[in-house]
Amino acid sequence: xxxxxxxxxxxxxxxxxxxxxxxxxxxxSRRPEVVDDASGFAGLFDASxxxxxxxxxxxxxxxxxxxxxxxxxxxxxxxxxxxDLVAMVIDDLAVCGAEPLFMTDYIACGKxxxxxxxxxxxxxxxxxxxxxxxxxxxxxxxxxxxxxxDEFDLAGAGTGxxxxxxxxxxxxxxxxxxxxxxxxxxxxxxxYSLVRHILATTDLTLDAVPAELGRPLGEELLTPTRxxxxxxxxxxxxxxxxxxxxxxxxxxxxxxxxxxPGTVDAVLSRxxxxxxxxxxxxxxYGKVPDAEMDKTFNLGVGMxxxxxPDRADAALELLAGRDVPAWVLGEIVPGAGAVRLS
Length: 342
What we know:
Layout: H1 12-27, E1 34-35, E2 44-45, E3 56-64, H2 68-75, H3 79-95, E4 99-109, H4 114-131, E5 134-142, E6 152-163, E7 178-183, H5 192-201, H6 217-221, H7 229-238, E8 241-246, H8 251-256, E9 264-268, H9 277-286, H10 290-296, E10 301-307, H11 312-321, E11 326-334, E12 339-341
Parallel strand pairs: 4-5, 9-12
Antiparallel strand pairs: 1-2, 3-6, 4-6, 7-10, 7-11, 8-10, 9-11
EC number: 6.3.3.1
Subcellular location: Cytoplasm
Keywords: ATP-binding, Cytoplasm, Ligase, Nucleotide-binding, Purine biosynthesis
C-alpha cells in the first residue's frame, strides 16, 4: 500500500495557497533596499545602503510571542499576534538606537490553514510597515502529530543598524538624568502563562466583561503590543536620550536595571502613573502578590527613556506630538545599579 506526505499530515498545496494570500500585505512592508530573489530561498537586502554610515554596527534580535498565541487560538483572532511579534523584536533593537532594516518570521503549526497563516503573516507585515522595516522572508512549518491542527507558535528575528558613536546604553547614563515612562497599550506579550493560569484556576473567563474594562476580557488581552521603534528613533535623533529600556519579561525594575551602569540608581515614583485596569482585574481574581505583579508584567509602562535633564521637557513634547503618552517617571541618582520604586 502506498502512502504520501499529505497522508502524513503535510499539505503542500495549502502552504502554497497561504503564500498567495499573504503576498500583497507582505509587499506593503517593502523598503527600497530590498532586492528580489527569484528563487525565494533567501531574503536579500542591499547593504550598500550602509555606506552612508561612518562605522555602522549591525544589531540583531530574536523573540516570540509566548503563550499569548494560545489565547489568539482560543478566540480565533490571528492578526494581532503578528503585531506583537514585531514589537517584541524591533523594539529591542530600538533600545540601542538602531534603525530597524528587515525582519524574518517562523511559524510552526499543526495544520496549515491558508487563511489563518495569511492573517498571522499579514499582521506581521502590517506591523513591520509601522516599525519602518521590511519583512523579507519567513517559513511556515507544518508539524502534524506534534501540534494539534489548531495549534501554532511563531517567532521572528530582526536586523537593524546604528552608528557606532551613537550607540545608546548604560555608559551614557549620569546622575541627574531624568527617567521618562511611555505608556503600554496593555499587557503586551509577557506574562501570559500567569494570565492563563488565572483563567484556568478562577471563574474569570475570556468572555467576561469586567466593569473596569467595559469590554470582553479576551478582547482586552489580545490588544496588540505598542510599537515604539520610530518614536524611540525620533528621540534618539533629537540628542536627548542616554538609554532606553524595553519593559518586557522581568517587569519595570528588572529591565530598567539592565540599562544602568553600576554607579547610579534609578529612583521611580509609583504615583507618577496609574496602573491600567486589566492588571488589577487579573491581580484581584488571581490573588497575585504585588511583588509578583511587579516582576511579571509591565503594569502600564512599556518603554523607558533616560534623558538629559535639560532635554526632558522637549522629549515629552516630542512624544506627545507622536501620540505616545509619556511622563516623568523618576530620576537617576548616585548608587550601585539598582532600581528603587516608591
